């Protein structure tokens, strides 16, 4: 509910529900959210299981070897449970996933879950820094463009957003490496840390910015930041393009509404109107866009990690694909899907908190 100026009404002005009904409504909403989350995750497991079944890679052949006899091959199939009926194999797969058993990588001979725990912090760190930069700049550009629609700044912001959204991310990464690393030497090259520091830091959290800060050595922290800035900027440009466009469109959609006209009639300036009236009313939409961009960065950093030699989940999956390492590919796909579902679920809750009208 909003007041005459369009802002959310104070809590004491909203109609109050009886406590019992509010409690039941909260429990019903929580139960509905949990059921939806469970169904989504189950559907994700169905998809990954189907991909494993349809894959031309034969795990029994990999286990037994190319030159194994028929008896050895059949024994390998039996040991892997491939002779069991399809429903039984699916239930076994679900049970393994729920216990963290994603199989053994054919490339590293390590449990896939262990490999993912090792490489995923790098992807999470890169995506988090990129979305923080992309969200701050993207929202700011959207607000600036909406202040003077169809003006010079608005046109420049739209052109920049179009370029950022359209330019292939791998090409932009190569261009950044050529310009800022090879030519200008403003930033470090591929990888997360230079060799001089790689063996002097003991990872604690897996997030090198935190680990080097905890280690207390300024040189290693600066080196980590220097390696991070280029890939994070490339991803941020890609994300802020969509964030700025949708922020601008949402704000322009609010500018013509009655409460905005009434606020102008009362003498409220455009900047104050934008920041204190319009922006809070589109906060839920902007938050959803930022969360979707973040989830996309978590799953779409494959090319960026490959170009910059970033040892994250994307590069791990790329290596697994070229090696036909199906357990690693499917395990990584499942983890990315789970992250996407969790990010969307958390965003839905935060959006309802920020904007109660969405409840």
TrEMBL record:
The chain crosses the membrane at residues 26-52, 126-147, 159-182, 282-308, 328-351. Residues 120-351 form the ABC transmembrane type-1 domain. GO terms for cellular component: plasma membrane. Belongs to the binding-protein-dependent transport system permease family. This is ABC transporter permease. Keywords: Cell membrane, Membrane, Transmembrane, Transmembrane helix, Transport. PANTHER family: D,D-DIPEPTIDE TRANSPORT SYSTEM PERMEASE PROTEIN DDPB-RELATED, DIPEPTIDE TRANSPORT SYSTEM PERMEASE PROTEIN DPPB-RELATED. It is found in: Cell membrane. Pfam families: BPD_transp_1, BPD_transp_1_N. Coiled coil: none annotated. It is a multi-pass membrane protein. InterPro entries: BPD_transp_1_N, MetI-like, MetI-like_sf. One of its GO terms (molecular function) is dipeptide transmembrane transporter activity. It comes from Kaistia nematophila.
